[in-house]
Amino acid sequence: MQGRYPRHDLRSVADLCGTWDFVFLGDCRPEDVRLADIRFDDVMAVPGCFDATPAYAGKRGLAAYRTSAPVAAGQNCRLVLDGVQHWGRVFVNGRLCGEHVGGFTSFAVDFAGPASERAEIVILVDNRFDAARCPIHLPYYDWYQFGGIARGVWLHQLPSVWIDRVQVTTVDYATRKVSVVVHYGVSTDTNDTQLTLSLDGEAVHSESLSPHQGGTWERTFTMKDADLWSPASPHLHSVHVRLGEDDFRQRFGIRQVQVSGKQLLMNGQPLRLLGFCRHEAHPEFGMALPQQVLISDLQLLKDMGCNFVRGSHYPQDGRFLDLCDELGICMWCESVGWQNTAEQLSDARFLDAQKLNIAEMIAAAYNHPSVILWGLLNEGNSHRPESRPAYEELIGHIRRCDASRPVTFASNHPFDDVCMDLADVTSINMYPGWYHGNLQTMAGDIDMILGKVHERGFGDRPVIISEIGGAAIYGCRDWNHQRWTESYQAELLETAITRLFRDGMAVTGIALWQFCDIRTLDTMESSCSILGRPRGFNNKGVMDEYRRPKQSYEVVKRLFRQLARPV
Ligand code: ADA
């Protein structure tokens, strides 16, 4: 991912975003496609979701995209694709170079530079549901899974020794000690390759390496007097590494997130997280949000006094994380998942796809100081003992990829969860006043659910209410003040926030469900069938899908701003 600041001064990187050739091949298997027979008859925006355009609205099937780019003949090349929804196969000059499962993570495809000076790139993209091919995108999930090359595409030309990524970890915020790990690759043995490193523009280290194969280089540095990152003062720093002919710039923040008893601490200070669950969705753009929408979403979050976003239910765009780093919004990043069953959690293919998704999510988001929590398996079957091995395996996998952040999962089983002890932070989804009870019984239901969490011993650490909310149809106002009206939703959210943050409740955070309305699936075979989703939308946003405010917007804003004030 190129990101919001220049990653490379030396390496040649071409941005391939723009207009690509396109054809919708429909109901055809990728294995049956002969590249030479593809007749491109249309064009499509990259990044973009083809089924968010009126011409292909609602279509599921195979599509082909094509572009071409200049390359230096014979040079090693790397194509970086930040998100192909939700399965992709990449060809360069007619040769198969790689494929990828899962739509929300960046992947790279390497190829030796062609003899010619142009690379023709063709990508087959499939947005159909096929659990065998793509086990982590299942048809019953409660959001519309758009298709297309939904995030950026970049063509890198690599020298014979190159830097894959640079990871910066705060070892000790008090002394400003950070560790820098450089992951590098080698195509030709090289002696005496110079590595130089600067921090915030100042050269701090230089040495000679003889890399014969890919590996890692690591060293710690103390950045005396450097500013720390926090939501209130989101200071950022940068490391620039030069290795032979290649270079890499990485932005980072100095901050540590720790669990201490019932508190979540950042740099020793307790955090109170106030925010929303957010899908990356817009009726006109699908899941390929233009920069302007990312920025305006953050403006709205800030306006409401939020300092927290739960990225439901998949890794969010790196450009959004860049903005969170700059604006001081804390992020919960989670891998793709939704109400996965014990049977799915026992399936090796599903687990392998989850592990890949988790590893890619963490590699891409590792350096973002805004990311404070890793999440997984939203509302999985964590109440069934058969699911426990999967939770153990996947949580262990997260910790092996990154031991520096706490791990959590949103559970909808506060009474009978059997995996909760595996997490560092207890996170509970609940819908009092919406799926059960009413506005009068709601406060009592919240107390009862939280009481149960404490009784079962899961309140001895930070507790986040990772979903709570109710739906309102934008513009629906009625004297009866019943479900689906804006006033019912506004009162429901007011009750939820005031009850959860009244003295003595001691929750660490809240992620209201949800930021804005989102298109969802059209099915009867799901816990969230179309009959409970008027217009085909999940209408629990405090804004509609075009970010027009409902009555609850001002309510949340008033309450969050009060709660955000230092006590
Ligand atoms: C669940 C789920 C959300 C959404 C919500 C709802 O808690 O995690 O994705 O489906 O319910 O609106 O019912």
Written description of the protein model:
By secondary structure, the protein is an alpha+beta fold. Helix 4 runs parallel beside helix 5 (388-401) and helix 6 packs parallel to helix 7. It is globular and about 70 Å long. It starts with 11 loop residues before the first strand and ends with a helix. The protein binds alpha-D-galactopyranuronic acid. Alpha-D-galactopyranuronic acid (ADA) binds next to loops.
Secondary structure topology:
Blueprint: E1 12-15, E2 18-26, E3 42-46, E4 62-70, E5 76-81, E6 84-85, E7 87-92, E8 95-101, E9 107-112, E10 118-126, E11 148-149, E12 153-158, E13 161-172, E14 177-186, E15 193-199, E16 202-209, E17 215-222, E18 237-243, E19 246-252, E20 257-260, E21 263-266, E22 269-270, E23 273-278, H1 291-303, E24 308-311, H2 318-327, E25 330-334, H3 342-345, H4 348-365, E26 371-375, H5 388-401, E27 407-408, E28 410-411, E29 426-429, H6 442-455, E30 463-467, H7 486-500, E31 509-512, E32 518-519, E33 537-538, H8 551-564
Parallel strand pairs: 23-24, 23-31, 24-25, 25-26, 26-27, 28-29, 29-30, 30-31
Antiparallel strand pairs: 1-12, 2-3, 2-4, 4-10, 5-9, 5-12, 6-11, 7-8, 7-10, 13-14, 14-17, 15-16, 15-18, 18-19, 20-21, 21-22, 32-33
Helix pairs in contact: 1-2, 4-5, 6-7, 7-8
